[in-house]
Sequence to fold (146 residues):
Amino acid sequence: MPTEVELAYAAGILDGEGCISVRKKENRNGRICYYCGLAIAMVDQEVPRWLLTTFGGFLYTSSRKTKAWRTVYIWRVENKALMDFLSSILPYLILKKKRAELAIQLCSMVRKKGQSRKPPMTIEEEAGRREIATQICAANQRQYIQ
Fold:
């Protein structure tokens, strides 16, 4: 369990280096689904590795196309791990607090594994998810593609 200092540090890293994003995807039944994710990318691997060991998620690298650019270490977290991470650092966030609150709300609406046999989501549920996704994208200052 991370200490309060570590939670505050992780919040600062997210505020300064992180990105909370939303993916829009059409499932096999033709329904639109929204997925939240969070990524923190740095050229030094120490912090992304610490985030991985402390909070879970995934770590991967990305090399830029030109030789002048160094390898980038990207820590990514999604789904339940994203909700847990954001909930734990929420009191310490400043810049991305509203986005984190929206992401937690959207993640809580996503059906868990094994729930896919339940009735399809209603038009109202889909509209609610779309509204939250649109707010996250607007907070990221990106235009949401309908």
In short: The beta strands are 18-26, 32-42, 58-62, 72-78.
